[in-house]
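A note on notation is needed here, since sequence and fold are reported together in a single record. The reader may check this reading against the record printed directly beneath this paragraph.
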Amino acid sequence: MQDQRVVIVTGGSSGIGRAAALRFAAQGDKVLVTGRRPEPIHAAAAEHANMVGLVADVASPTDAGRTIAEAIDRWGRLDALINNAGAGAILPLAEAKADRITDIFSVNVLGPSLLASAALPFLEKTRGTIINVSSTFGHKPGAALSHYAASKAALEHLTRCWALELAPVSIRVNAVAAGPTESGALTGMMGLSPEQAASLTEQERAQIPLGRRGIPDDIASWIVRLVDPEASWMTGQVIAIDGGLGLS
């Protein structure tokens, strides 16, 4: 019988992270989901017996090592790291301050780097994989999104660089670039009011060639596919899943 896989999903309490975690758990994988807020992360973990929650901040150097150790202590191995946790803001250049820029890059660039580094010895043993969750705006410019977009562009290039670096030890690294998704990010991560979010939602829908915003499962299904052994000859790729927004 094939060993159960062990998967870490950061930002696993809602949206894309939660959807991916549930898909992994449903197929028999053991899943550690992390997030900064205790109630949402424990509520998400309670949705499936194969899921366990851990309160952790991906931007914390201490928490990166603690997250990897939690998975190893529980299940003795690690097969996949899903760097899904993200930070962003509608941030015009005139309003850009050091602390806000640092917050975005700490979560979107520093965090995945620290987690991936801590995970390496264990992923090498299992010939595992790293999946980074980017955005359409990692390769498409957006007004007032410059620092969020730049952080995601950095994450996409980290994906390609890590893929080259880690190929000799059979660790695959890929990314999914998610388009606008019905995940609550506009009022949560982006800090918009419900009215502002509703207006932006309509603007985004009008720009998307396929005529709708995504749902978390649209992205989660591809995350799971990229971890699957059938994708074992694929590395260094950034797959855009955005209804064609990147083309517009």
Summary: Residues 13 and 41 are 5 Å apart (CA to CA).
